[in-house]
């Protein structure tokens, strides 16, 4: 079962409405926003980071935000976080960096969400592939991810 298949199952099991958009492959939030003709703040940035204790977590935030490393570390409950290596992300999550979905339950990784994201009406995320985006209500994303807010 692909990452995308697992996401569809999660959405259907939770009765969450979603729309699928196919587009040219995108690797950044600005190009995703451009491809979808939406604001970059409506895109979801899902970053896999490694804590000082060598544990991987997913930071989920609006696509137009930059990581504030000290704030992120404090929100996760550690002294330092840094990007996980691309090969670690591929092995743990099952997809490349740049299309990591915001669903930690796919991998049992803890999810930490920026509260700004939950205030949006709708958000768009990549489902583990670079050439598709899914649109769901931001509230549904928060509900299904069961994140810790940071």
Report on this model:
There is one protein chain. Helix content is 31%, strand content 25%. By secondary structure, it is of the alpha/beta class. The protein has a single domain, classed as YbaK protein, CATH 3.90.960. A five-stranded mixed beta sheet has the order 4-2-3-5-8.
Query: What is the mean pLDDT?
Result: 93
Query: Largest sheet, order of strands side by side?
Result: 4-2-3-5-8
Which stretches are poorly predicted, pLDDT < 50 over at least 5 residues?
Answer: none
Tally of extended strands?
A: 8
Gross geometry: globular
**SSE class:** alpha/beta
CATH class division: Alpha Beta
Rg calculated over all Cα atoms: 14 Å
Count of domains: 1
Strand content: 15-25%
CA distance, first residue to last residue:
31 Å
In DSSP terms (H or I, runs of 4 or more residues), the helix count works out at 6
| CATH-scheme architecture | Alpha-Beta Complex
Q: What is the chain-wise order of helices and strands?
A: HEHEEHEHEHEEHE
């Amino acid at each position: 079962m692909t990452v995308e298949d697992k996401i569809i199952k999660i959405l259907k099991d939770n009765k969450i409405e979603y729309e699928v958009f196919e587009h040219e492959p995108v690797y950044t939030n600005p190009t995703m926003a451009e491809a979808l003709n939406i604001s970059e703040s409506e895109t979801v940035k899902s970053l896999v980071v490694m804590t000082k204790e060598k544990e991987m977590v997913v930071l989920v935030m609006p696509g137009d935000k930059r990581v504030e490393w000290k704030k992120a570390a404090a929100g996760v409950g550690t002294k330092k976080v840094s990007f996980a290596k691309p090969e670690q992300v591929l092995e743990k999550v099952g997809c490349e960096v740049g299309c990591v979905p915001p669903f930690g339950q796919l991998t049992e990784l803890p999810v930490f969400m920026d509260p700004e994201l939950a205030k949006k009406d709708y958000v768009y995320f990549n489902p583990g592939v670079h050439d598709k985006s899914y649109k769901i209500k931001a509230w549904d994303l928060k509900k299904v991810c069961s994140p810790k807010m940071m």
